[in-house]
Amino acid sequence: MIRHVDVRLCRAHSFAPVLTLLVCLLLAALPLCGQSAPMPQPAAVSTLHIASGDLLELTVFDTPEFSGKLRVSETGDVLIPVAGSVHVAGLTAMEAAGAIEQRFRELDVLKAPHASIFILEYATQGVTVSGEVRAPGIYPLLGSHNLLDLIAAAGGATTNAGHVIVISHRDGKSDPVFAQFDPKSGTVKNDVDIRPGDTVSVSRSGVVYVIGDVARPGGYLIENNGHLTVLQAVALAQGSNRTASLKHTRLIRKTEVGREEYAINLKLMLQNKLPDLTLSDGDILYVPSSQGKYLGYRGIEAAVQVATGIAIYSHL
């Protein structure tokens, strides 16, 4: 008997490690069995809010006498038959429907109301697009739109468009938002979401005027990262003529007290003996003509013409 018990004890001890391992595996698997994979979260949807002047369509299930079109008053309320006035300004369509259902329950008009709101017209949800666009105006914002959508709706940017877009919010409390815009490629580096009532203003690129004794006088846009120097402006004008007086170049700049003139020695600047100056929007770079060079070249031309005439006459 003692020997039989010993055998059983030995067998029990031999199976103990295996049982212990199985129990541990089961315990470790229990949390995993009850744990489900995380569900993907839907992307955030930008929903427009109801404002004064909007036209709503209220539909109450199985109660057509309470349904109909409602205009939001200046105070942000809508007047519903039997239920009275309900404030809906600042709410989404779903939130407004919930507020109307709550009013029906509070007044015991309906036991289990089911209402839905559809916004037919947005009176104040437009976005003003101004500045250097082809068709400035107010454009409706009937969904989530970005800057490029609104610029495209306004006909696109003009040839004078700058590199900055300013977004001003209607509340007047938030600071303006600045976006970097590339007019050539039509892309925005830091695109931002547009709110109802915002004002989008496309800046105008600066213009520098190069006049005088240059190959192509005219106005040139400041496109190179918002900077344009004297030598770059002269290069855009295809350089100076041979009769130009580079030493007596003038920079005319508009200041708060009026226009001021600054002397520039363009010859030394071209020789890299003077620093290249940065120009500002509206600057005028005037390269005058040298009277001495003009008379000298005119004399040379006259002499060449006389010599040509003599040579032709001598061969006759």
N to C succession of SSEs: HEEEEHEEEHEEEEEEEHEEHEEH
Assigned CATH class of the largest domain: Alpha Beta
Distance between the termini: 155 Å
Mean of residue pLDDT values = 78
The chain-level structural class is alpha+beta
Report the principal-axis shape: rod-shaped
- Indicate how many domains the architecture comprises: 3
Overview in brief:
The chain has helices spanning 2-34, 93-106, 147-153, 230-236, 266-270, 291-314, and strands spanning 55-60, 68-71, 77-80, 84-87, 115-121, 126-131, 137-140, 161-168, 177-182, 187-188, 199-204, 207-212, 218-221, 228-229, 249-255, 258-264, 278-279, 284-287. With 316 residues, the protein is α+β, with helices and mostly antiparallel strands.
Name its key features.
316 residues; alpha+beta; wza like fold; Outer membrane lipoprotein wza fold like; 3 domains; 6-stranded mixed β-sheet; 5-stranded mixed β-sheet; 6 helices; 28% strand
What does this protein structure show overall?
With 316 residues, the chain is an alpha+beta fold. The chain has 3 domains: 55-121, wza like fold (2-Layer Sandwich), CATH 3.30.1950.10; 126-204, Outer membrane lipoprotein wza domain like (Outer membrane lipoprotein wza fold like); 207-293, Roll (Outer membrane lipoprotein wza fold like). The chain contains 6 helices and 18 strands. It has helices at residues 2-34, 93-106, 147-153, 230-236, 266-270, 291-314, and strands at 55-60, 68-71, 77-80, 84-87, 115-121, 126-131, 137-140, 161-168, 177-182, 187-188, 199-204, 207-212, 218-221, 228-229, 249-255, 258-264, 278-279, 284-287. It has a 6-stranded mixed sheet, covered by helices on one side. A 5-stranded mixed sheet has the order 13-12-18-15-16, covered by helices on one side. The protein has a 3-stranded antiparallel sheet with strand order 2-1-5, covered by helices on one side. β6 and β7 form a beta hairpin. The chain is rod-shaped and about 105 Å long. It starts with a helix and ends with a helix.
